[in-house]
Input
Amino acid sequence: QVQPVESGGGSVQAGGSLRLSCVVSGDTSRRNCIGWFRQAPGKEREGVASIYSGTGNTYYADSVKGRFTISQDSAKNTVYLQMNNLKPEDTASYYCAAGWVLGRGLRPSQYEYWGQGTQVTVSS
Output
């Protein structure tokens, strides 16, 4: 089994920063990629960023390019999402997911293992 656990959400004003963490425990052979997703009330879950565990290749949604950075610390089995210049439209529940994926890894259907989510609220 693989279990992602997120932390680091909170409330900030527009222009502020937050860093989310995702600790992924379990069988590493069951996943080659970690993705961050978000879901706002009444909206579909959308991919934010992904990182391949072996190559370190990263992919971003256009809406967060230049503001968010995904990174990993393999020794700690942890993936981070640094979010800068936050906007009110970034407000959502943020989820970490793990799976064996291909391509950009930004589609929720690609992932088998999901965390419980952490709330990010950005006020104007």
Notes: The two ends are 40 Å apart (CA to CA).
